Known about the structure:
Elements: H1 3-11, E1 93-97, E2 100-103, H2 104-120, H3 128-151, H4 158-171, H5 176-185, H6 190-210, H7 219-231, E3 235-245, H8 252-270, H9 275-282, E4 293-298, H10 304-310, E5 318-324, E6 327-338, E7 349-360, H11 368-383, H12 389-396, E8 407-411, H13 418-425, E9 436-438, E10 441-454, H14 456-487, E11 490-492
Antiparallel strand pairs: 1-2, 1-11, 3-4, 3-6, 5-6, 7-8, 7-10, 9-10
Helix pairs in contact: 2-3, 3-6, 3-14, 7-14
Amino acid sequence: MSSLLAALLASSVGAHAQGLRLPGGMSGGGDSGMSSGSGSMISPQVTEPQSPIPQSPTMTTNPRNAQPQQPLRSAPAPTAAPRKSGTQAGDSIAAVVNSEAITRRELEQRIQAATATLSRQGIPQPDPESLERQVLERMIVERTQMQEAAQTGIRIDDFQLDRAIGRIAEQNKVSVTEMRDQIEKEGLPFAMYREDLRQEITLVRLRERAVDSQVQVSESEIDNFLADQNQTAPSQLTLAQILVRVPEGSSSDRVAELRRKAETLLNQARGPSDFARLAASQSDGEEALRGGDLGTRPTDRWPGIFLEAVAKLQPGQISGIVQSGNGFHIVKLVDRKTGTAAGEASAVPIQQTQARHILIRTSEIMPNDLARQRLGDIRQRVMAGNVTFADMARQYSNDASAPQGGDLGWLSPSETVPAFEQAMDALKPGEISQPVQSPFGWHLIQVTGRRTQDVGRERQRASARQAIYQRKVDQQYEDWARQLRDRAYVEVRLGPNTDAPLN
């Protein structure tokens, strides 16, 4: 896959992010909090994925103000026991996940893609049987999550997909036609790319709803984090792992059996075996087909048990067995880079704007012309003094800031999309803009104040909040994905013993 295609795939999630501020982002000045969920104008950003599902760099829910949601539903039980496979039509089915089938053709396509990926990364190929098992397990995990997304009503329609593709093309400074040609030149049919992207966005939306919105970060956690940062030099760790997964509800005998398997793999990893190849063939982690590579993260982004396991290791060395709720981990320290102690936050004076807005989202029943006309009428009524801007925002705005009269709080430079920021910056305090179009609809903007503010300390705390938040999200995602997989009915139809469910 070319670097352009990789960039397109990596940027697809960021193109859909709609949070006004990053999780834990600044509220500006001494304000007590961020505007809750007023997410309608954030610039699309691209970040390097650090977890099995690419993560949106901006979340629709502020972790401090996240509201509890309904408990996750169990994966659906099959309406009828899947029929046994034999030598007839069932031969075309590789596995049944709840009531859905994964076909052998789908599996073969994914195996081919995995083989190409391992080759590009220079990872020795596992034996065909191990590779088939690893790829199928990844597909099973994805299928359980797509089923959960369907149950919770998450659906990406063609209009949303076309808009995402347009933004990806724009981010990469190519037209949609040029992007399609490049993708197909690399051997991937554009229709398949569309469906892969649809699934990727669906899974990101599911993760945001089921996992990200549940995580909160307290002020005391931030205080403790910064105290530790001031005493120790920050560093970055590159880690890899081999995971022996322990299914939820396993008996003590089964846990002991899996621990013995982990001990065998540890001896092989510390012996002549290539760690990446061993991970690709034996690890139960979702990163197995990357040779177990977990990537590079700041120290504060890694689970505490991993940090403790590699604390005394030199690059290239391998830890003992680390037990967690997911199973038994064998962790390899690939690289460590150490910086300097953080110290006190430096002064960062910037000009901030206090603003409120009214957002009219466009749709089939609210086309562009009608949205713009409605905002024009509202502006005339406010300018005539018959109504207040805040009252109109409460009545007409489609944004989560509507109950607060459209108040967005204090905004820093580059915190909103360019079209919004350009119109806002042209206003004097008290002025109201003409209708302004952004990727999220049409806005009326009123500037209510400006100030120069030192945001150094706030940025330091925002960075700390984001680090803590992301570490907790990563761990909670792993737990959630494991529980979803363990609850599913799975029947694997590969090999000589095809009748026994695999859980």
